[in-house]
Amino acid sequence: MIRIEREGPRLTITLNRPEKANALTFEMLAQLAQAVTNNADARVLVLTGAGKVFSAGMDLAEAQSGLPRNPVWSDASEAIAEFPGLSIAALNGTLAGGAFALALPCDLRVAVPNANFFYPVMKLGFRPQPHDPARLAALVGPARAKLILMAGEKISAEEALSFGLIDRIATADEMEAVLERLTEGVCAASDAHLRAIKAMIDG
Question: Sign (positive/negative) of CA torsion 132, 30, 199, 177?
Fold first, then answer.
């Protein structure tokens, strides 16, 4: 339910369950964590979705099996956060709920113009994934994090850009060209140079 493609220095992982709006299952999260870890020598990680939605979040059919609190979420999220190259969430559509756990740890986020962003944990009675509130607040500030997580506001791509939640807006036709532009320098650099600069930024 995920597609893994490695082309030279670039690793692309696609959430590939479009008939279910790429709702995340235990299997998908475990496969994603393993794929990122096994390709730590890649210089670029692109995470995207098949179809018109990046991900609707957790598959609610698996909620009763304990998925909301399963450590597989942290495994996937931390694998992305610890990726030593440049990670980009190419948001081909709406980002919802637990799928924030995959997009927030990426270094950059690029979204299509019609993408929406919402995290309905207050309404559904779930808690956010463990690292999400702090990562969200680091990007958009505490008040806007509360606007999304507590007030349950749905925000547009334009609002997400102004908040700092995403870094670029690109149409589906423009997305690949934008990704190539953003990763050109990283792909041309040495591994040591890439990792040194990322370490200087991340501390």
Answer: negative
C-alpha distance across the termini of the chain, in Å: 35
Q: What pLDDT is recorded for position 61? A: 87
Which residues, listed in sequence order, are joined to residue 111 by a DSSP beta bridge?
91, 169
Q: Residue 96's pLDDT is what?
A: 97
Side-chain-facing half-sphere of 6: CA atoms under 13 Å: 10
Question: Within a 10 A sphere around the Cβ of 44, how many other Cβ atoms?
Answer: 24
Q: Which segments in the chain show pLDDT lower than 70? A: none
Q: Which domains does the chain have, with CATH numbers?
A: 2-202 (3.90.226.10)
pLDDT at residue number 184: 96
pTM, two decimals, is 0.96
Pick from 50, 189, 31, 54: which is nearest to 109 by CA?
54
pLDDT digits (tens, 9 = 90+) for 129-168: 889 999 999 999 999 999 999 999 999 999 999 999 999 9
